[in-house]
Amino acid sequence: MRKICVIGTGYVGLVTGTGFADLGNDVVGVDINPERIEQLNRGIMPIYEPGLEEMVERNMKSGRLRFTTSYEEGLKDAEFVFICVGTPEGVDGEADLKYVRAAAETIAKLMTRKLIIINKSTVPVGTGDWVSEIVKRAQPEPKPFAVVSCPEFLREGSAVTDFMHPDRAVFGSTDREAAQEVSELYETLNAPIVITDIRTAEMIKYASNAFLATRISFINEISIMCEKMGADVMEVARGMGLDKRIGQHFLQAGVGYGGSCFPKDVKALAYMAATHGTHPELLNAVMQINDFQRKHILLKLHDVLDGNIQDKVIGILGLAFKENTDDIRESPALSIARQLVNRGAQVRAFDPVAMEHSAKSLPELAMCGNAYEVAEGADALVIATPWNEFKQLDMARVRASMRLPNLVDGRNMYDPETMWELGFNYRGVGRGYQGRGVHFKSENGNGNGSH
Ligand code: NAD
Ligand code: UDX
Question: Which of 117, 119, 172, 271 is the most buried (most CB within 10 A)?
């Protein structure tokens, strides 16, 4: 059993701290947000994450997991302190490190013994060295410490499983012994371990996220071609993905990537590249394609509504940036909803868990009790987040209750042919081929027309 302090109890800190407690360690979670700590101490989860509540409860009961706003309490006996605070987008796309700086300074002032400081937040290359300097300068008297980069790869919605079954764990430090010691905390997870220098570890995180975002923009670009040329991107992705060198993952065309990581991390990497005198042309294209993908959904709506969005009733299914989370940071669904509101549409929506946050962010949005209410009397319906429960809808009932049968399936959840048979004017993403019985019809009047 090791003694661990986790700074920040958001998606990463709460899952990481609880995961370490579950592996038998003694963990204290520290956050500057008193409301969050009070909630946690009452057993209320500040975020929606499948499987997390039971795990927090179990470990709090066993006494291995505690939460506090006090750094003193958190650091008292800690051997390891994980920094898991936010690194949001700052000016010009640069990562804003103010929370990391504040955490590092407070740790330096209050540490009472030798400490390994681990950076789990996603931070620009060179931040580990910067944190070392901050700690040295802020310590009232010199105490031994090491800084290790241990980037996090969990995904929201499957964070608990991702913590327990990581594809790999990465540890970077100039102090190899410290990196080795941190890696031993992960030993029972049996994941492949990469021990490297600190800057390489920091780059592994950005390069991984940027690569995944690139795959998404790649398939989204192909999807636009499919629409023009009469091919089906779902089949294209399957056919490509069966090649072991390509693989099936992250080839789902849709409304573009969102969330608290990809958008800001691709921007931050491009910013870093530019400030180091390189030209991140691929990353710039990835971001442009992603921006276009949201507009593309609006163009589809424009098209099916004959260019008239104002006063139309438009229903949105899903508001979270992806399924199984309540996170709406950089959510394509919410961005589409906002643009429709700005164009004078009456927009209503349903999401299983993200409506509370969304209502605060976009009060003009009318919230409904379920998907059928969203469809009732609507002129168009947009599927924006691929929640499982949207796969199970009685689409004949949905169709019958709509004023106009326009279905824009931003996540390709439904089979085009079945939807056409039910009488929908169906528009998926990248689905130029619209089923066996339906000939290719190019959207927006472009392309080769029917053959
Ligand atoms: P979050 O916003 O959910 O949580 C951050 C928490 O840190 C908040 O509770 C906040 O109150 C707290 N905090 C801020 N300053 C603090 C301080 N000085 N001391 C103590 N607590 C403080 O953020 P997140 O989504 O968990 O992301 C954290 C980091 O991990 C970011 O760098 C992010 O890029 C990275 N990351 C996130 C994910 C993800 O899926 N969310 C995955 C991998 C990596
Ligand atoms: C991502 C990374 O996957 C994770 O490793 C990192 O630690 C944090 O950032 P997350 O943002 O939680 O995780 O979700 P992810 O599943 O990666 O999806 C990101 C966005 O891409 C979502 O908007 C999702 O809908 C979209 N996406 C994903 C696609 O549009 N197509 C795909 O094929 C996959």
Answer: 119
Contact predicate 39/56, CB 8 Å? no
3-state secondary structure of 334: helix
Same domain flag for 246 and 139: no
pLDDT over 60 at 380, yes or no = yes
Whether ligand 2 lies within 6 angstroms of the CB of 280 is answered as: no
CA of 142 to the centre of ligand 2 (A): 42
172-216 pLDDT per residue, tens: 999 999 999 999 999 999 999 999 999 999 999 999 999 999 999
- The CATH number of the domain where 185 resides is what? 3.40.50.720
Residue 103 CA: which ligand is closest?
A: 1
Percentage above 90 pLDDT, the chain: 96
CB 14 within 8 A of CB 154: no
> Measured from the CB, is residue 259 less than 6 Å from ligand 2?
yes
Query: Do 162 and 240 share a domain, yes or no?
Result: no
Cβ(212) – ligand 2 distance below 6 Å: yes
Q: Check: CB of residue 226 under 8 Å from CB of residue 206.
A: no
Instruction: Please tell me the predicted confidence (pLDDT) of residue 432.
Output: 86
Query: How far apart are the CA of 297 and the centre of ligand 2, in A?
Result: 19
Kindly state whether residues 299 and 230 are assigned to the same domain.
yes
Quote the pLDDT of residue 10: 96
Whether residue 319 is predicted with pLDDT greater than 80 in this model: the reply is: yes
The conformation of residue 305, written as its DSSP 8-state character, comes to: T
Residue 168 maps to a domain: yes
Model confidence at 446: pLDDT above 50: no
Q: Where are the alpha helices (DSSP H) in 253-386?
A: 262-275, 281-304, 332-342, 355-361, 371-375
Q: Which atom of ligand 1 has the smallest separation from the CA of 99?
A: 15
Q: Which two tokens stand for residue 166?
A: 């990581």
Q: Within this chain, do residues 220 and 184 fall inside the same structural domain, yes or no?
A: no
Q: Which residues are catalytic?
A: 261
In a domain, 204, yes or no: no
Q: How many CA atoms lie within 13 A of 367 on its CB side?
A: 16
